[in-house]
Structure formats: structure tokens, C-alpha cells
Amino acid sequence: MSMESRNEDSIKGRVGKRMKSAGLVGVGVVAGIAVSLQFSAMAQRPAEPALPLEELRQLADVYGLIKSDYVEQVEDKKLLADAISGMVASLDPHSAYLDKKAYAELREGSQGKFVGLGIEIAQSEDGTIKIVAPIEDSPAWRAGIKAGDLITRLDTTPLKGLSLDESVKKMRGEPNSKVTLTVLRRDEPQPLTFSLVREEIHQKSVKGRIIEPGYAWLRVAQFQEPTLDDLAAKITELYKQDAQLKGIVLDLRNDPGGVLQGAIGVAAAFLPKDAAIVSTNGQVADSKQTYYARPEFYSLRSDSDPLARLPDALKRVPLTVLVNTGSASASEIVAGALQDYKRATIIGSQTFGKGSVQTIRQLTSDTALKLTTARYYTPHGRSIQAKGIVPDVLVNEYADGDGLNALRMREADLAKHLSNDRDTEAARDRRDELEEQVRILALEKKREPLEYGSAGDFQLTQALNQLKGLPVQTAKPESTIVQAATPVTGK
After folding, report:
1. What average pLDDT does the segment 62-89 reach?
2. SMART domains attached here (predicted)?
């Protein structure tokens, strides 16, 4: 699942102006990349290495040949920007050169606002773009667009066949710009058209409700700058509705990450003060850090503590955490910390496995370099990189197996991904084989995107059963999955 508000990463630093931010994964059906960020000043950089003069001469020669011999003229700025981009992109999936547009989108996205239409979308396995939900009081919401509508065209451009990222980018734009959506709606014989005007959308990253007496569902869709304030307000509201909560389900499914302070704060809300939440380690001294459940590590304002007025009962209330393959980066930090301290039971499927940190080095006033500089670790020293968080209780999306979750890629599937430095990948081939079989089964079932928190949310029901001490329907053993997916031939 992805949002029209999707940004590649997050921004904002506090601790020593060098706070790390765990970034986002665009979770489509078969694609996903998560990026963790640290915004760092140019000062305190290591000494410049000696330049390889011979290789630089070759680069200059190539540049000269392109300028003199290429079939048409190429701008100097484009050539050099593409050279930088290619050099950085060759390192790993998360290092990148950020041009003016990319850098501006990065900074905008972490603030929980964007310019667009105000719809959350997902992509089915056949490439169809489906509206999961319109954002309240957005242009799409006011126009009457509904959850379940299928977007077929944006102006004159068909969306089927475009990636989820491409579709999102086409829906975003300049304030007050107009766009026409063509949608298909169940029970409507003809396509519907909606003329919308893009505007700045303010999105709540936290929602929740009392799902039955004594039990609450609390969902964090992504970690943005306002997330902790939103979380504190929602928890306060839930306890006003039911002061004797017996259990909370914290839903981090398809949460692609975001601002690290948000992750530290969400974990801190349920853990003792001063508990270590996450640590990082890399080549330079600045990358060796430990972050704790204290306001200076999670508050974006030095004069406030968003968690100060939360009820004391929150530290003790029974807790389950829902995760899936789309849970990445900052959401894995939260799940890993709560799991290490045995504060919560983690339920769902193995997470994405994004456990590296990227440092943002500003190059000019409007361009920057995003460079992988460290790995991060859970409080007990586990590396999440290329592995993810393995739930305490494995539960599929549906009673009869996994749905779109099984079709998503994980960090370990990405080319040039960093290895896990604290775990072997000996069982990787076997795991790949099993995951491929699960993908085949999921494709055969042709599932629609799941609406989290709905009456048909099977994993949520199982998380509630866990809180109540009732039987939980766990995922099938691996041997059963393989057997079910293997053709049987008779003699």
C-alpha cells in the first residue's frame, strides 16, 4: 500500500543536530525501498582521501568526447549530475544523489503535508490502481471519491501499466492545478469523472478506535514530524472513552518508516524511561550512537515532551504489534525494541529488513547526497538489515493464506543490498524458494488490497485473540506451504 503523500524519506534533526531518520518504503505489490536518513552538517567530516588522478583524467576524457562527438548537444549540468547520480547509485539501493526536486520532496514529506488530491492508493497484481481511502476534507473526499474506486485515467493518461511510484507522482503537482480522474465504481454502469484542484493536504499519521469494550486498535501509518503529537492525542482520546483498557493492538503493517524521533517516541510510550531503543554503528565516530527513551531523543521541540501526560497504565497495558513485509525501517525499530524487552507480542509476517542509515550531506542550497553510513541494531544488538523482524506469532493476511503481502519484495531481494553483519544467510536459498511458492499461491487467489481495521481484518482478529488468551490461527508450517504449491502427478 502506498499513499499519494508518499515521500522517499524524512527530515529533521535534534540530538546534536545529527538525529537519524528512518525512511520510507514505497510498498507496491512487488516493489519496495526503504531509506533511513541522518541529516548532518558538513563539519566534522573525515579528512579528504587522496584523489585517484588517473581515473579522474579518464572521466574528463569521457566528458570531453561526449561534448565533442555525441550526436547532439548535452548540457554540462545534466552530464555532471548524471555522473554523480550513477556513481552514488552503484553503491547500494539507498544511496542517491538528490537533485533540486528530489531534495524538496524529501523535506516536504516528513512534515505530514503535501500538495495533491488527498487519496491513499494501492496497486493490485494486475496493475490496477485502487483507492484505499480518501483523506478527510481533501479535494477527493469533497468530490465524493470512495474507497474501492478504481482509477483508470489521470487526465488523458491511462494509469494501468504505470508503477505505483509513477502514479503517485502524476497525482501530485502544483497548488491550484487542475486534474481530471476517471474511475470505475462497483454497481455503476459507466465510468465516472471527477475534476479536482490540487491543494496542500495535511495528513494524520495516527488513527485508532475502541474496537470492542476494553480493547483498542492504534495504527501508525508512517512516522512524520507530527506523529508523536498525533499519537499522544489519540491515546488520550482512547483512554477517555475507556479508562480500563485491557489491551491495545499497535498496527504497523505497511508502515514504511519515516522520522526516527517518531519511532523512538512510539517505543518510549510503552517502555520504561531511559530504555535503549536503537543503536547505530558505522565507519566514522558520528555513526556510533545509542538512542534512549528520553525526550531529548524523541521530541522535535526542546521545550516539550509529547508523552508527558499519557496515562501511567500505558506502560503496563497488554500489547500486541501487527507487522508485515511492508513494515520497514522506523516501524522495524519500534517492533524490534518492543520484542527485545518482551513488552509486546509481535504478530504477522517477517518485516522488510531495512536496517541501514543514510546520511544527508547538503551539496548546494537545493541539492544533497544521500549516503549509506551505518547499520542500526535493536536494544539486544540484533541487526535488522536484510533480515527484518521475525514475529513471535506468524499469522497470514487471511485465514487461508497470505494476500498481496506475499507479493512484495524485501530488502534482501534488492540488488546490491548490504549484508547482515551479525547473521548468516545460509538459509537464504531455501527461504527464497518458499517465498516464491507463497507468491504463486497469492497470485492464484487474486486478492484485493486489505482495509486495515475493517471487520474482515483477519490479522487484527488474531491479535485480539492473543490479547484475550484465546486460540490464534497461525500461518501454515513451511512444509505445508511447499506441499500445497507443488503440482502432484499421478502414475
Report:
1. 94
2. PDZ, TSPc
What's the whole-number mean pLDDT along residues 185-210? 90
More confident residue, 26 or 89: 89
CA 191 – CA 189 distance, rounded (Å): 7
Q: C-alpha cell of 203?
A: 495528513
**What does the block give as the cell for 402?**
497470505
Q: Which of 329, 331, 356, 383 is catalytic?
A: 329
Please give the Cα distance from 117 to 5 (Å, whole number): 9
Q: Which of 251, 340, 402, 457 is catalytic?
A: 340
What residues does each domain of the chain span? 113-202, 206-481
The reply to whether the predicted model has a pTM over 0.85 is no
Q: Decide if 329 is catalytic.
A: yes
Q: What is the pLDDT of residue 169?
A: 82
Q: ∠218-259-93 over CA atoms, to 5°? A: 115
Homologous superfamily of domain range 206-481: 2-enoyl-CoA Hydratase; Chain A, domain 1 (3.90.226.10)
Percent of the chain with pLDDT over 70: 78
175: phi then psi, degrees, rounded to nearest 5: -55, 140
Architecture of domain 113-202: Roll (2.30)
Q: Is 354 a catalytic residue?
A: yes
For the stretch 347-400, pLDDT in tens is: 999 998 999 887 788 999 999 998 888 899 999 999 999 889 999 999 999 998
Closest CA to 259 of 334, 171, 316: 334
Residue among 486, 459, 471, 328 at smallest CA distance from 401: 459
Q: Are 219 and 208 in contact (CB under 8 A)?
A: yes
| Nearest Cα to Cα of residue 372 among 287, 262, 260 | 287
- The one catalytic residue in 12, 20, 130, 354 is 354
Closest CA to 152 of 119, 185, 125: 185
